[in-house]
Design brief:
By secondary structure, the chain is of the alpha/beta class. Helices cover 38% and strands 13% of the residues. It contains eleven helices and eight strands. Helix 4 packs parallel to helix 5 and helix 5 crosses helix 6. The protein binds 3-methyl-2-oxobutanoic acid. The site of 3-methyl-2-oxobutanoic acid has 11 residues, from strand 6.
Length: 294
């Protein structure tokens, strides 16, 4: 009898590494909130494709963010402003496929890009539906103040929302650069007001980017039912997020102060590619072990 099962190996490239079904229960909003209230830290990494998503999940990170940082990481743009909703949909789907194939349990967040929720709450809903149908469990949107009613509108319609305050890269041109936010008393007070309003509107998570550590820690204590995820926001938040390619050392030219490189993959990739090219030129690859006899 011939098998009709989907082969787990293709001759081209790699499918997301299959892992044995996790002993961890799928992450959920109640579980993430419980982690926040019990002081258990939440780890979040970005991923933009199936393979990296599966690897990050297998490593035990709780949340995977398909961030619009993919504009820089995958598209080579100079900011996130040029990232479209269709691009976000595509990468969200790739990550969701990877997680599904590898029995993953991580909580998947899709980032609503610039211009996809700014016109109206209805536009935000339509954009959020696109990412949710691509496999996201939650959408993220940047900004406070005017976004509060948008968050409420989405949450009331059953869409979990992660807010994002502090440095909001989509407004980099308005902010005048990638700078620490909330440094003056006035700016800190505004950040506090916006964070509380977002929590009250139903935001179930809040990314704090480039915010002074003491202010982030204070906000984390105040937001009793909204875990905070810091990036350049010190150690007092409920969890931390990093851009995967930065923490893997794939970008070896520049790193922001808050980035810790846990690997030096740019060196490894360069060396592997150099060796491959040399072996091809010298006729040493493929050897007999990589060739078919018949
Ligand atoms: O787009 C992104 O990757 C992000 C994180 C840096 C928080 O928003």
């Amino acid at each position: 009898m011939t098998s009709t099962a989907t082969p787990s190996v293709t001759p081209y490239g790699t499918l997301p590494p299959s892992s044995t079904p996790s002993t961890r229960k799928p992450l959920s909003l109640p579980r993430l909130r419980e982690m926040h209230t019990q002081g258990e830290k939440i780890a979040m990494l970005t991923a933009y494709d199936a393979t990296f998503a599966a690897v990050a999940d297998a490593a035990g990170v709780e949340c995977i963010l398909v961030g619009d940082s993919l504009g820089m990481v995958c598209q080579g743009l100079s900011s996130t402003v040029g990232v479209s909703l269709e691009t976000m949909r595509h990468h969200t789907e790739c990550v969701a496929n990877g997680l599904r194939r590898s029995h993953a349990t991580a909580w998947l967040i899709g980032d609503l890009p610039f211009g996809s929720y700014h016109e109206s709450k209805e536009q935000a809903l339509r954009s959020a539906v696109v990412l949710m149908q691509a496999g996201a469990h939650m959408v993220k949107l940047e900004g406070g103040g005017w976004t509060t009613e948008t968050v409420r509108f989405l949450v009331e319609r059953g869409i979990p929302v992660c807010a994002h305050l502090g440095l909001t890269p989509r407004t980099v041109h308005a902010l005048g650069g990638y700078r620490v936010q909330g440094k003056t008393d006035e700016a800190a007070a505004q950040l506090r007001r916006e964070a509380i309003a977002l929590q009250d509107a139903g935001a179930a998570m809040l990314v704090l980017e480039m915010v002074p550590a003491a202010l982030s820690a204070e906000l984390t204590q105040q937001l009793t039912h909204c875990p905070t995820i810091g990036i350049g926001a010190g150690n007092g938040t409920s969890g931390q997020v990093l851009v995967l390619h930065d923490m893997l050392g794939l970008n070896d030219r520049f790193a922001a102060k808050f980035v810790k490189r846990y690997a030096k993959l740019a060196d490894d990739v360069r060396e592997a590619a150099r060796l491959f090219a040399a072996e091809v030129r010298e006729g040493r690859y493929p050897g007999p072990e990589h060739s078919f006899e018949k």
